[in-house]
TrEMBL record, chain A:
Top-level lineage group: Bacteria
Key words of the record: Membrane, Transmembrane, Transmembrane helix
Pfam family, one: MlaE
The keyword ATP-binding is annotated on this UniProt entry: no
TM segment ranges: 37-61, 91-111, 194-210, 222-246
Coiled coil: none
Protein name: MlaE family ABC transporter permease
Amino acid sequence: MITGALRQTGRLFALAAEVSRAVFRRPFQFREFIEQFWFVASVTILPAALVSIPFGAVIALQVGSLTQQLGAQSFTGGASVLAVIQQASPLIVALLIAGAGGSAICADLGSRKIREELDAMEVMGVSPVQRLVVPRVLATMAVAVLLNGMVSVVGTLGGYFFNIVLQGGTPGAYLSSFSALAQLPDLYISELKALIFGFIAGIVAAYRGLNPRGGPKGVGDAVNQSVVITFLLLFFVNMVLTGLYLQIVPPKGG
Amino acid sequence: MSFGKQNIWQDVTLTLPAGEVSVMLGPSGTGKTVFLKSLIGLLKPQRGRVLIDGVDMVSSPERDIYETRKLFGLMFQDGALFGSMTLFDNIAFPLREHTRKRESEIRRIVMERIELVGLLGAEGKLPGEISGGMRKRAGLARALVLDPQIVLCDEPDSGLDPVRTAYLSQLLIDLNARIDATMLIVTHNLDIAATVPDNMGMFFRGGLVTFGPREVLLTSDEPVVTQFLAGRREGPIGMSEEKDAATLAAEADSAGGVRTDAPRVIVPQLEPSPGLPPRAAVARRRERVLGMLDRLPPAARAAIQDTYARTAGAPTLRMPATGSGS
């Protein structure tokens, strides 16, 4: 049981290492990358925008209510923006990429595997990792980084709107507290998180897709597991990255 | 070779004679497909070696294995075509991946192969839109497009009607005459087994029963072989697995020695279609088989001498050796 779990973990890391190596191997599958990028982007853009507006609003309302009680209302803007950019945005992006893009990638690779298409590819001397997995992982990473920018902006605008319109905050206080507390490294860590989360979503989807157990039912199970495993890893990695960031980068306000 | 605790087969050692056509027989579920996949390095046996041109497909570096695989053409049981590509793109795939040919050149080669397997007119279809037999033939066309030195066919006959199977047998022989490739066909079709191969082997009970010139297996007295070739129920092969000793004894009693097997006749091997060059393998095999004649069982020896008495001699050729064993 424990050795089984360790073996799976080891093979997941081995695939991650193999993909990282294969990224630099020629020829790069540019066409496949564009197709996958377009696919992942098309299934995630709209849901991401729709999720980020209420999420930004919820954070704005919650933080606004808290700061009101503490008498620090003028800092609502800065606090809610930081929460959106550093936490909410990369997580929303990663959940959508894993749920919409990763599950499709996993199902696609899994059905190819049970139809022996991947074996056929290997027999023809073409590595499925280089031909199929690398473009998909790069696509999820690229979409994650770009989508993260969009979600940050939309979420921040949503928070601004709700704070000003519903809670009677002043635009000036919102913006000045924003520039008083937020700094550029907040944006960097946000994009770095999105990049890493995109990588994890791509790798886990590919790993479960390449190793389905026992026929078509196995592919369904693999898709399910890939989404669950990705979520677990995301929140864990997010905790580690956030902890490191708070230790390493000095806060601007202090 | 085993999966978990289930041992599929062990101690299989053989050398595929270069340029000749070999057939591997065996009841369903005896590991024939597993054997093919081990030859090409898709599955790794726990012990042993598979040598192709000096490269061990079990333990060599991944790079060498990928390089060696370019020598192979493997026809999968159900074609294993890429579902998202048309037949044309499927067959063109190896050319586009491994060669720098221009698109017009690729088109010419692919259409030639499509015509060879009789699929002209279907090149724009997706694999989901054609019958199983057509998928199989398309899989064969894809396996042949890089002019492989070694052709492996996994049950080329399953899902084909007897007429198409006969055409396919002829196609395989013609192919051998044309490109002089080493061919291994895994099947349980007796017509293919009787007419196509130069050499035959048989899998049973997790091991290789025999492997050698076709006459050896066709004249063999081994109970497994006779049962299989005659398609009888009496014998060591059961419905799901091999039978146990008690069932076998009961069977022998009830049969009471009234077996009515007609004496087996060795059907002559297929010849290449008119207009094609003679198969270079025939001459090589003749020399090889005559060289090992005194080590063969008497029945096989008589059959071989009988065969060669009927055919005239042919010039001999030399070829680089391609061997495999595990």
